[in-house]
Write a structure and sequence with these properties.
By secondary structure, the chain is an alpha/beta fold. It is 37% helix and 16% strand. A four-stranded mixed beta sheet has the order 1-12-11-8, sandwiched between helices. Strands 3-2-6-7 form a four-stranded parallel beta sheet, with helices on both faces. Strands 10-9-16 form a three-stranded antiparallel beta sheet, with no helix packed on it. It binds pyridoxal-5'-phosphate. The site of pyridoxal-5'-phosphate has 14 residues, from helix 3 and helix 4. The site of pyridoxal-5'-phosphate (PLP) has 14 residues, from helix 3 and helix 4.
Length: 386
């Protein structure tokens, strides 16, 4: 039934606004590098959209995470609680500052860091005094780093409560959840530190880039300072600490300005695409399980993701779709399994393992046509009928 056709990619950018116009302005004026007015403009437009007080743009989402951990003063040989089921970037960033990740399992319905697992780790595996000490490693636990994966916010209300109770810092990886809300506030609007990414497959893109939003003038100032080589006396080139070159070039900030202007439209399309998948999966009675949002959250889906039936791997369906010119993918190898992090404390995360086996993300670019989406759904339907 499913007809051969052109290739349908998983998630590609839509570049149909003022991108050419703003980039041309940079080229015409010669402001292509890290100085130039687009950087500040992009920071302002982005923080206005999110509803944050401060914003610092960066060269990538990963460098935003690194800076957020640095300005939080997460120290060498401290530990940070992070979900195992995430793209590896936040886990790497924890190692960049010499700290270690403690992998927390996910909620099986929302796929997000499970607050019950966080609380259970702190209660059962730590001794709590002036500091929270992981009994198995002897290291101090300093922070919780939830990653709102796939556009679905983690249960921030619960995590915030735990962070306050145990005096832990909360740093949010919001790279996949621009536009989503938790407890009635947009992700990144009320946080001390939330990190965004503008990589090519994200909701909006600058080619490569990132942003920290913050409600703390001090943390934002420190992040900006460290991202610009910690220069304290520009004319004399005096630097007051070891900084980084994590700046976003004006040329890319120009793309960012054009993309923010289109965010409302991108989000509308993402919601329509997800609603169509949801309703077709249900009306055709396909054996796929939909994601559920955390309590009091509103979702702007990023990669549209569903689960195959228990024990069933998604890889055969991914191969079937590939043969039919449709790109899809599994979630990331859970980080507690990653050889890159083999020297971090061993923990079991059975839900993350199960999500890795069964989850599949389907094409959901904001410029996906209805016809192409129907072809995806028909091909998935054929897979289960064949
Ligand atoms: C995309 C992403 C990042 C940051 O990626 P960059 O490519 O460095 O911008 C970080 N964490 C998660 C969960 C991501 O999906």
């Amino acid at each position: 039934m499913s007809s051969e056709g052109h290739f349908i990619p998983l998630s590609v950018p839509t570049l149909q606004g003022n991108e050419w116009h703003y980039v041309k302005q940079c080229l015409d004026t010669g402001w292509v590098s890290t100085a130039g007015s687009m950087v500040g403009e992009f920071e302002e437009k982005f923080r206005d959209y999110v509803g944050a007080q401060f914003s610092v743009c960066t060269s990538s989402g990963t460098s935003a995470l690194h800076l957020a951990l640095l300005v939080s003063a997460i120290g060498r040989n401290e530990e940070v609680l992070v979900p195992s089921m995430t793209f590896i970037a936040p886990v790497n960033a924890i190692r960049y500052v010499g700290a270690y990740p403690v992998f927390i399992d996910s909620d099986p319905f929302t796929f997000q860091m499970d607050p019950l697992e966080v609380e259970s780790f702190l209660l059962n595996e730590c001794s709590v005094g002036d500091q929270v000490i992981n009994k198995s490693t002897g290291r101090a636990v300093a922070a919780i780093l939830p990653v709102h994966i796939l556009g679905y916010p983690a249960d921030l209300v619960a995590l915030q409560k735990i962070a306050t109770k145990y005096k832990l810092k909360l740093i949010e990886d919001a790279t996949e959840s621009l536009g989503s809300s938790s407890g009635g506030s947009m992700i990144g609007s009320k946080s001390p530190l939330a990190c965004f990414s503008f990589n090519g497959n994200k909701l909006m893109t600058t080619g490569a880039g990132g942003m920290i939003t913050s409600n703390s003038p001090e943390l934002a100032r420190m992040a900006k300072h460290l991202s610009t080589q910690a220069k304290s006396e520009p004319a004399e080139y005096v630097h007051d600490e070891v900084g980084y070159n994590y700046r976003l070039p004006n040329l890319l900030a120009a793309l960012g300005c054009a993309q923010v202007e289109q965010l409302t439209g991108f989000i509308k399309r993402k919601l329509e695409i997800a609603q169509m998948y949801d309703s077709e999966i249900q009306s055709r009675r396909l054996p796929l399980t939909l994601m559920r949002p955390s309590p009091s959250s509103e979702v702007v889906p990023w990669l549209y993701t569903v689960l195959l039936p228990p024990e069933k791997s998604s890889r055969e369906l991914i191969g079937y779709l590939r043969k039919n010119q449709i790109e899809s993918r599994p979630l990331w190898q859970p980080n507690h399994r990653s050889v890159a992090h083999a020297d971090s404390p061993k923990r079991s995360c059975p839900v993350a393992d199960d999500l890795y086996l069964r989850a599949i993300s389907l094409p959901c670019s904001s410029n996906l046509t209805e016809l192409d989406q129907i072809r995806v759904i028909n091909t998935v339907t054929d897979y289960f009928r064949d």
